[in-house]
Amino acid sequence: MKCTDPGVLPGSDYYFATPSVLAKNLFYYLLCAGSYTCEAGYHIRRKNYNSILLMYVLEGSCTVQFEGRTYVAESGDIMLLNCYKPHEYYTNDYLKSLWLHFDGSQSLEFAENILKTQGVVLPCENPTLFISSINSIMEIFRKHLTISEPSVSCIIHTLLCNLVSVTSVSGALEIESGAIFDAINFIKTNYCANITVDDISKYVSVSPSHLSRMFKKQTGYSPYEYLLKVRLDNAKSLLKKTDKPVAEIAALTGFNSSSNFIYTFQSRTGISPNKFRHMPF
């Protein structure tokens, strides 16, 4: 559908989708999608439009006003907006973009987590993924095909996951060098010792706060969460593969007491170490 709104140039198009009851209950679902080329005069101001907006800026820039702050998304940036809240965005000169409004599943919680940790405007580390994904959705509309709601849900979820951390088709984190790579290896080598986030930050020569921000962005975990994950993963292996007492396993995996290990294990897995040990898989 061609757009004739102020500031939107010829050749721009956008389309609407109405989700099924099933999609509203289970999936991330699409509400509308567009491919816009805009000039000065394109200006969106809303009290709310109950959805999440994800925009990839192909060229030009987009100014965003949200929660009392002003942001500028430029070529290669992602703009993510919680449109349940008042928002405003526009271009003062030129903007070429691909965008989606979506909702459903954990969309709001997902978006709020990203906004809290990374902000409204994010550099896009995988532009090919975002461009090809949104264009594939646009082609469905342009060809008058029927949307596969589960497939579109997967696309939206993949894009959100890519904003949270570095992802790959294989499911493995693609971190091959740098401070976070070194921090991960330090944790894997020293998890059985009484190490802290300060120890990790000293090893990689960055401040604890900077390490925490970068570690969370690249892995999805805080450094402490990742340390706990490594300890628990190794504890699970020892519980299943050996007859070592729980207290010994606690000591071997870096917990300062068996009671702390039991409490942490149960709070994270939902069952006690002994129940896990005897659980068939």
UniProtKB/TrEMBL annotation:
<dbReference type="InterPro" id="IPR018062">
    <property type="entry name" value="HTH_AraC-typ_CS"/>
</dbReference>
<keyword id="KW-0804">Transcription</keyword>
<dbReference type="InterPro" id="IPR020449">
    <property type="entry name" value="Tscrpt_reg_AraC-type_HTH"/>
</dbReference>
<dbReference type="Pfam" id="PF12833">
    <property type="entry name" value="HTH_18"/>
</dbReference>
<dbReference type="InterPro" id="IPR003313">
    <property type="entry name" value="AraC-bd"/>
</dbReference>
<feature type="domain" description="HTH araC/xylS-type">
    <location>
        <begin position="181"/>
        <end position="279"/>
    </location>
</feature>
<dbReference type="InterPro" id="IPR037923">
    <property type="entry name" value="HTH-like"/>
</dbReference>
<dbReference type="GO" id="GO:0003700">
    <property type="term" value="F:DNA-binding transcription factor activity"/>
</dbReference>
<keyword id="KW-0805">Transcription regulation</keyword>
<protein>
    <submittedName>
        <fullName>Transcriptional regulator, AraC family</fullName>
    </submittedName>
</protein>
<keyword id="KW-0238">DNA-binding</keyword>
<dbReference type="InterPro" id="IPR018060">
    <property type="entry name" value="HTH_AraC"/>
</dbReference>
<dbReference type="InterPro" id="IPR009057">
    <property type="entry name" value="Homeodomain-like_sf"/>
</dbReference>
<dbReference type="Pfam" id="PF02311">
    <property type="entry name" value="AraC_binding"/>
</dbReference>
<dbReference type="GO" id="GO:0043565">
    <property type="term" value="F:sequence-specific DNA binding"/>
</dbReference>
